[in-house]
Structure formats: C-alpha cells, structure tokens
Amino acid sequence: MNKKCCYNNRMEVLQQGNCTQKHMCDSLHEIFNALPRYTWDSISDIPFDSGVYIVFEKGEKYEDVDRIVRVGTHIGDGRLKKRLNCHFINEKKDRSIFRKNVGKAMLNKDGDAYLEAWSLNRAKKENAASIDRMKQAEIEKRVSEYMRSAFSFAVLEVEDKDERLRLEEGIIATLNSCAKFGPGPEWNGLYSPEEKIRTSGMWLKQGLNGIPLSDKELLRIRELCSEQ
Predict the structure, then answer these.
(1) Phi then psi dihedrals of residue 172, to 5 deg
(2) Residue 2: pLDDT band by 50, 70, 90 thresholds?
(3) Among 211, 129, 208, which residue's Cα sits nearest to residue 170?
(4) What is the pLDDT of residues 158-209, one digit of tens each?
(5) Exposed end of the chain (fewer CB within 10 Å): N or C?
(6) Which of 70, 66, 46 is nearest to 58 (CA)?
C-alpha cells in the first residue's frame, strides 16, 4: 500500500471518529514532518510570532520519518521566537528547561559530579556557593553546540493562548499514549537522570499524562497547518 493510500485510509478513520492513538501518532508525524523546517540560526525567519513548536532530533525516527522529541509553546502572546531563542541562543539553562535537561543527560552520561550543581537554580542566593562559573559556562557551550547541531523544529501558528496550551498538552499526551512511539537505542535522552524523559522518549516531563487529542482537535491541527 502506498503512502497516499495510507493517508486516505487514516483520514477516513479520523473523520468517522474512530481514530486510534496509533493513527493519531502516525498523523501527527505525517503532518509535522511536512511543515517547513527551521534550525537555531533561522528562528528569525519564522513568519509569525505565536504558536506551538515541534522538535526533531538527528538519528531519531518514527517509522520512515523524523521522530518528534519535544513539543512546546509560550504563554505570553507574540513570544514564540523569544522562547526558541531561550532554548538555542541564550546560554542560560535556568530560562530553558529544555537546555537544562539536555545538560543533565550529558553530565549523567559522563558520570560528572557537577550534575547536582547544574540541576540547581543559579539565580537563588542559597545555591551560589555550589556554582562553578567556569564549569557552568563550559557546560552551557556544550549544550548549545549539541542543540544547534542535533535539533530542528517545525512551527504551527496558533494565536489564541488557551488553544496553544491545549494543543501542546494534547500532542504530548497523544504521543506518550501510543505504544509504538518511543526512543531509539542511541537516543541521548536515555542518559537522563529523569525517568519520565527516558521512558517517554521526549525532552520533557509535563503533559505526558494529560488528555490526548480528540478527533476534532487533530482535524484542527491539520487545518492550521494547511493555512501556513
């Protein structure tokens, strides 16, 4: 069966309201892999300022397409690019849980005792004594180098805050509820000290057990993507 036939079959199931989580997961990967792809140095090229971002990582596959490894958004209107800059440009892990988790996996893989200090919030005065500024800067640089070389992302324009947050949660929960979805054997997230990251196959912990997308919401995502 060719891809076009498979696509039509999935759409028929979806429209009948009988879409399984497997079909949902297939559809999400199909939809988001078809969108324009951005990298850290093309954030400014995104033609809108509010939305949901879908992250892919080199080497990670879902069947024959790139596997989604993170889903995120922003609360304040018009802050999509600023949020992405926090992940990829600004070397301050306390402003990006994504950066923080990537660094934790790196340090845990290396058996580096600085993992405990890296996990602390640098802005809190009580943590100041535990922070080695030179070591911190070294890790931030490593994290940046990895993230800029390994990650790419697609973006979905969603202007309404409540809809952004709901679609973010729904996409994450849908992926996590699909038995076929998961990390490859070489995925760096498997070195994370966070069990939820290791088991989910995504660089996040929030929203995993949220409410999966409804058939109507999946159709809404397809509609939004068709407008881009």
Answers:
(1) -60, -50
(2) very low
(3) 211
(4) 999 999 999 999 999 999 999 999 999 999 999 999 999 999 999 999 999 9
(5) N
(6) 66
Q: Answer whether 72's CB lies under 8 Å from 56's CB.
A: no
pTM as predicted: 0.88
User: What is the rounded distance in angstroms from the CA atom of residue 85 to the CA atom of residue 40?
Assistant: 8
Under 8 Å between Cβ of 70 and 55: yes
Give the confidence band of 100 by pLDDT, cuts at 50, 70, 90.
very high
The rounded distance, in Å, linking the Cα atoms of 218 and 23 is: 11
Most distant pair of Cα atoms in the chain: their distance = 62
Q: Which residues of 60-99 are buried (b: 16+ CB within 10 A; e: fewer)?
A: bebeeebbbbbbbbbeeeeebbebbbbbbbebebeebbbb
* Gap between the Cα atoms of 98 and 163, Å rounded: 22
Spell out where 63-203 has E strands: 65-72, 151-157
- Residues 6+ away with beta carbon under 8 Å from 73: 51, 52, 53, 80, 83, 158, 164, 165, 167, 168
**Beta strands, E only, 93-169:** 151-157
Task: List 52's β-bridge partners, or say none.
Answer: 156
pLDDT at position 6, please? 37
